């Protein structure tokens, strides 16, 4: 396995599978933040101390008896990547924008199927991330917990008997777990219910963020829903609370879809097919418009109003039409206009291939 494997292929294995409730829940993720005892947290660490963290993690990765998912995992140093390669890993949700842009001596450990991504020297020394298709936060938590136990058997974590695991950000102190799901909510957006729904979710201790997490924009009606606090709660409670709230969101989205179908079916059908027509024919399209149109078409697929295109094709297009991927595929830097032209061309090609495969 080599770096091009991670940067040239759009879909991680976890995005290909059709997981539970995948018509609304794109993916489930659990992230665990840990720091090593005796070393300053990344924001205060010297270059040599940051390098020591990478060395210790890499040594642990080579130990016998490690979890099977790590046996063929690869450690990639951020210093060895170009800005474009880092951007592609962000677009695939394998690393955070913070690791790509601000980390000193950062690295990432990636499993073959990209379901496991372990960031080193991000905000914390270690951030274990497990990604599953569809609505599977419990399964993601079980794998993350297994990996956490393994690393803790090899490394000494920073831990307080009263506060739990110590982290750079106070909101992660305690369990250090962040459980999240990525949901597609086009019907709730069309019926203007999100402004009521999101504040209610915040009041029960969850956060709603954009497609790439904190501080990012919501594109294509995709949102990340996650817990906000880790102190004073057991890991299982955090995951179960998230599951309960997301189940309600799924039901609200289904209800909204049914209402639109009943109240304004022709307008819905027209919107979806217009977006499909634009994507199939456009010669120039911006990233934002592409995501909006892809959201419409994905809704049409899930509601049985469009045939000949699979959800997997739409997942792939949502990745390969992003700026980093377009430029990696072109093997050159592209300005905004050039990216908009290539994006439209790539969408036309993929939709045409989808029809041929059918």
From TrEMBL:
UniProtKB keywords: Allosteric enzyme, ATP-binding, Kinase, Nucleotide-binding, Transferase
Enzymatic reactions: L-arginyl-[protein] + ATP = N(omega)-phospho-L-arginyl-[protein] + ADP + H(+)
InterPro entries hit by this protein: Arg_Kinase, ATP-guanido_PTrfase, ATP-guanido_PTrfase_AS, ATP-guanido_PTrfase_cat, Gln_synth/guanido_kin_cat_dom
MF terms (GO), sorted A to Z: ATP binding; creatine kinase activity; protein arginine kinase activity
Residue interval(s) of motif RDXXRA motif of the pArg binding pocket involved in allosteric regulation: 339-344
Top enzyme category: transferase
Biological-process GO terms, alphabetical: phosphocreatine biosynthetic process
Notes on how activity is controlled: Appears to be allosterically activated by the binding of pArg-containing polypeptides to the pArg-binding pocket localized in the C-terminal domain of McsB.
Chain sites annotated for binding ATP: 27-31, 93, 127, 178-182, 209-214
EC number(s) on file: 2.7.14.1
A GO term from the CC aspect: extracellular space
Location of the Phosphagen kinase C-terminal domain: 24-256
Residue ranges of the TM segments: none
Function: Catalyzes the specific phosphorylation of arginine residues in proteins.
HAMAP family on file: Prot_Arg_kinase
Family affiliation: Belongs to the ATP:guanido phosphotransferase family.
Name of the featured protein: Protein-arginine kinase
Organism of derivation: Kroppenstedtia eburnea
């Amino acid at each position: 396995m080599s770096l091009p494997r991670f940067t040239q292929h759009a879909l991680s294995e976890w995005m290909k599978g059709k997981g539970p409730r995948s018509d609304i829940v794109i993916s489930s993720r659990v992230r665990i933040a840990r720091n090593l005892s005796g070393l300053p947290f990344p924001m205060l660490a010297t270059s040599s101390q940051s390098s020591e963290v990478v060395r210790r993690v890499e040594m642990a990765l080579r130990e016998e008896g490690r979890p099977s998912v790590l046996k063929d995992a690869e450690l990639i140093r951020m210093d060895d990547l170009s800005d474009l390669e880092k951007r592609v890993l962000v677009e695939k949700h394998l690393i955070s924008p913070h690791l790509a842009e601000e980390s000193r001596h950062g690295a990432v450990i990636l499993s073959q199927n990209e379901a496991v991504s372990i960031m080193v020297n991000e905000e914390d020394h270690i951030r274990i991330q497990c990604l599953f298709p569809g609505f599977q936060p419990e399964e993601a938590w079980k794998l993350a917990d297994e990996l956490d136990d393994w690393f803790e058997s090899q490394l000494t974590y920073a831990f307080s008997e009263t506060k739990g695991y110590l982290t750079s950000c106070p909101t992660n102190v305690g369990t250090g777990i962040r459980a999240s799901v990525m949901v597609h909510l086009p019907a709730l957006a069309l019926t203007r219910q999100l402004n009521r729904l999101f504040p209610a979710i915040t009041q029960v201790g969850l956060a709603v963020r954009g497609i790439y997490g904190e501080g990012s924009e919501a594109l294509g009606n995709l949102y990340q829903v996650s817990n906000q606090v880790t102190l004073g709660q057991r890991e299982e409670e955090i995951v179960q609370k998230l599951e309960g709230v997301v189940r309600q969101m799924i039901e609200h989205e289904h209800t909204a879809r049914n209402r639109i179908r009943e109240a304004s079916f022709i307008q819905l059908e027209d919107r979806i097919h217009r977006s499909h027509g634009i994507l199939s024919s456009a010669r120039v399209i911006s990233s934002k418009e592409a995501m909006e149109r892809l959201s419409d078409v994905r809704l049409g697929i899930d509601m049985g109003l469009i045939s000949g295109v699979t959800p997997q094709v739409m997942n792939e297009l949502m990745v390969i039409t992003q700026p980093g991927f377009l430029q990696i595929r072109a093997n050159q830097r592209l300005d905004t206009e050039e990216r908009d032209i290539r994006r439209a061309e790539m969408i036309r090609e993929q939709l045409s291939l989808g029809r041929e495969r059918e």
